[in-house]
Write a sequence for this structure.
């Protein structure tokens, strides 16, 4: 059972509640079968409306999240369960990929190219959708096209990643690089 | 080889346009002024309603149709000086007070939940009456002397038919219950009565007199 | 139907969520700026696709309000030459603008779909329509057609450039067409401003001052400017085509610099 910790314990700039975030994180871990970590720490910078997030450490698994990543774009300063699940799910999946092998040769998050980063996001969100979460598929297609070209080859690569499971970093990187090359972006 | 010096009839065998038409210059100008007045009132109302209508597709259609009717008003405005009316505003008037009452009633709904009433007034009452009036005019005026008006009316009628179809389909899409049917019918009857009192968009005789017989 | 229709009553379906400028400015996270990022929108930014989506949605709601504003100008004023009246030809231009803005809405809806954005996914700010509510038609024209449509020129140019660099042919194509219309609308505003204030220096000054207020409001604390790093680029060439003088463009650039520094 993964223990979820959220900081801060009280929010003053946004109307988030710790128990709501914990509940979403536990649902993601259970539904997406991501119980490989004893602990999941989520450090939230509530002062930032930006939507950035990163893995601060893998052991214990700690995510650094800017508040905008959990925010409802329709209702400023309110928590969006869908966006919270999407953000936590993607990063826990990436951490799981790294510790489960197959991604040991993946560059660090900071060293990923934009294309590689988006390709990995697509692979993660595709798996979250299979686990019953919303994925904003068209939004992900647009992000993917921006990094891999507005081409049929890029769209085919997207479909491959979106429906995949059990990929290794080399396989994921090969799909991404081939799409870039086919679109004349390499 | 064609002999260029060989005389031909001024009207080809298939050209059966005739003189005279039933409208003289003054009557044509009077009608054209009324058309401009109602087209202006309509495009103003459609423009004003855009902000009041929550249905996105209807909001955008009203914006598009607003321009169609503004263009019709412009066509009629430009025709008036060609009909010896150098001050077009002088003839840009309603045919009577009853027509003003009709337009007041037509443009009265504002609330967001009254889209059906707004559309019925335009697309089931006013536009069918405009189609009737313009068709009567184009079929009865001289195709030789008043050809410029006919050309404009033809353009306008094309828009009217297209917009009427758009509007009717929007109305049908809004009607979901028997009560909606009643609402639409009630609104139509209410406005039809006012337009009946006005005699049509150009006043009594807008579409002629069906009971007038030749020789009387 | 009332003459003059308040922004609070603008009709929307349930997908849309409105946030007032006051609420935006009072967001404690933004330090009163009302906006969240000052970085120039380029595809090289990690967040660029989502920022482009958000900006495109803002353009979409702006187009709806521009349509509503032009429509209200058709209705709110009587035809005439008196105070609070407008020439028939001005109304015809506004009706034409209604059609243009309706097409822009249609284009924006399709672009939103292309970019993976749901209608109503982002909040709506009615500041644009509020500028279209002035009771003086000349001020309305300067506020909307010169200040806001002028801003649209800048935003569309920024988005078109983004589409070009990102290799997105759909975005580039759509923005290019909308840009052509916006130049026309700004020119309309410039022409009517001259026409309606001919011989009335006071009224011209009031109108230009109102335009300056709106320009300042929409400088977004310096987000728009001529510097390479400005998120929204002030576009000189198209503004000149639309009837702005060099001095007027310099003035807007200066306003943006002042806003950025404050």
């Amino acid at each position: 059972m993964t223990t979820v910790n959220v900081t801060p314990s009280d929010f003053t700039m946004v109307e988030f509640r710790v128990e709501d975030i914990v509940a979403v994180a536990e649902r993601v871990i259970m539904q997406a079968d991501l119980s490989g970590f004893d602990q999941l720490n989520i450090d939230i910078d509530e002062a930032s409306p930006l939507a950035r997030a990163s893995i601060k450490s893998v052991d214990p698994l700690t995510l650094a999240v800017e508040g905008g990543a959990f925010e409802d774009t329709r209702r400023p300063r309110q928590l969006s369960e869908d966006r919270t699940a999407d953000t936590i799910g993607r990063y826990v999946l990436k951490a799981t990929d790294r510790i489960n092998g197959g991604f040991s040769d993946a560059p660090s998050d900071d060293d990923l190219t934009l294309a590689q980063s988006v390709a990995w996001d697509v692979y993660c969100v595709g798996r979250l959708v299979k686990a019953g979460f919303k994925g904003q598929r068209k939004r992900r297609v647009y992000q993917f096209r921006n990094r891999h070209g507005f081409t049929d080859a890029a769209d085919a690569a997207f479909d491959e990643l979106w429906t995949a499971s059990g990929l290794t970093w080399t396989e994921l990187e090969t799909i991404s690089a081939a799409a870039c090359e086919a679109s004349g972006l390499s | 080889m064609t002999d260029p010096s060989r005389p031909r009839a001024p009207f080809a065998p298939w050209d059966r346009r005739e003189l005279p038409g039933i409208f003289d210059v003054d009557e044509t100008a009077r009608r054209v002024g009324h058309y401009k007045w109602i087209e202006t009132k309509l495009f103003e109302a459609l423009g004003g309603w855009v902000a009041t209508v929550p249905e996105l597709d209807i909001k955008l259609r009203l914006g598009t149709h607003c321009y169609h009717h503004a263009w019709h008003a412009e066509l009629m405005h430009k025709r008036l000086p060609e009909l010896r009316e150098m001050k077009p505003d002088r003839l840009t008037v309603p045919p009577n007070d009853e027509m003003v009452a009709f337009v007041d009633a037509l443009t009265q709904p504002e609330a967001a939940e009254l889209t059906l009433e707004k559309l019925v007034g335009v697309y089931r009452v006013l536009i069918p009456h405009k189609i009737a009036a313009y068709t009567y005019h184009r079929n009865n005026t001289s195709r030789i002397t008043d050809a410029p008006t006919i050309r404009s009316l033809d353009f306008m009628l094309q828009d009217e038919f297209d917009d009427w179809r758009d509007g009717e389909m929007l109305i049908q899409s809004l009607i979901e219950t028997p009560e909606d049917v009643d609402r639409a019918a009630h609104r139509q009857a209410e406005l039809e009565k006012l337009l009946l009192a006005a005699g049509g968009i150009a006043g009594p005789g807008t579409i002629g007199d069906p009971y007038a017989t030749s020789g009387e | 139907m009332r003459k003059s229709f308040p922004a609070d009553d603008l009709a929307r379906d349930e997908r849309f969520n409105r946030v007032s400028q006051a609420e935006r400015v009072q967001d404690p996270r933004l330090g009163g700026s009302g906006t969240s990022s000052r970085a120039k929108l380029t595809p090289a930014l990690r967040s660029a696709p989502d920022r482009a989506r958000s900006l495109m949605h803002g353009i979409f709601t702006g187009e709806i309000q521009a349509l509503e504003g032009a429509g209200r100008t058709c209705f709110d004023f009587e035809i005439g030459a008196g105070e609070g009246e407008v020439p028939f030809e001005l109304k015809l231009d506004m009706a034409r603008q209604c059609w243009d803005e309706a097409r822009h809405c249609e284009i924006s809806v399709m672009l939103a779909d292309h970019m993976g954005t749901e209608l109503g996914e982002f909040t709506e700010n009615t500041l644009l329509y509020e500028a279209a509510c002035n009771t003086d038609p000349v001020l309305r024209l300067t506020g909307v057609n010169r200040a806001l449509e002028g801003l649209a020129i800048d935003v569309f140019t920024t988005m078109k450039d983004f589409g070009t660099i990102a290799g997105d042919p759909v975005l580039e194509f759509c923005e290019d067409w909308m840009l052509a219309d916006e130049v026309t609308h700004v020119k309309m505003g410039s022409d009517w401003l001259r026409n309606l204030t001919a011989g009335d220096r006071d009224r011209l000054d009031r109108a230009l001052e109102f335009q300056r207020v709106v320009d300042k409001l929409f400088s977004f604390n310096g987000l728009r400017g001529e510097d390479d790093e400005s998120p929204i680029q002030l576009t000189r060439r198209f503004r000149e085509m639309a009837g702005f003088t060099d001095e007027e463009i310099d003035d807007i650039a200066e306003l943006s610099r002042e806003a950025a520094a404050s």
Notes: Residues 81-99 of chain A form the longest helix (19 residues).
